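Technical note accompanying the year-one report. For the benefit of new consortium partners, we illustrate the data format agreed upon in the data management plan: each record pairs a sequence with a structure-token string. No post-processing was applied to the example shown here.
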Amino acid sequence: NNGLKTRNGILRATSSKLTGPYLTEYEHLHKTNAIVEGSSVFPMIGSDRYILMYDCYADGHYQFCVSDDLKKFEFLANTDTKGDFTPRHGSVLQITGAEVERLMSTFGGK
């Protein structure tokens, strides 16, 4: 890994195929002091920006960062994971307004 300490940060691995082979870029997309896992990147709806989220499991929150180019991410916010529902290693899935309505009418919401 070219001497890079990879423990506290997010690296990028790319491939032209879903199943690889992958090329790992040994440069942090975002550096953090937290111990993290379960990262995901997704586009913001109606924007050219992207969100990087990952689980700071030892600290009890998700951390969110934002990027315009998928190369450098800046801290955006922490979101606590506590209470009755404490997801781990979250994923993001875009759904339609009709799907939101069906889910809300079936399961409710706050």
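Partners are asked to follow this layout when depositing records. The beta strands are 9-14, 23-31, 37-43, 50-56, 61-67, 74-80.
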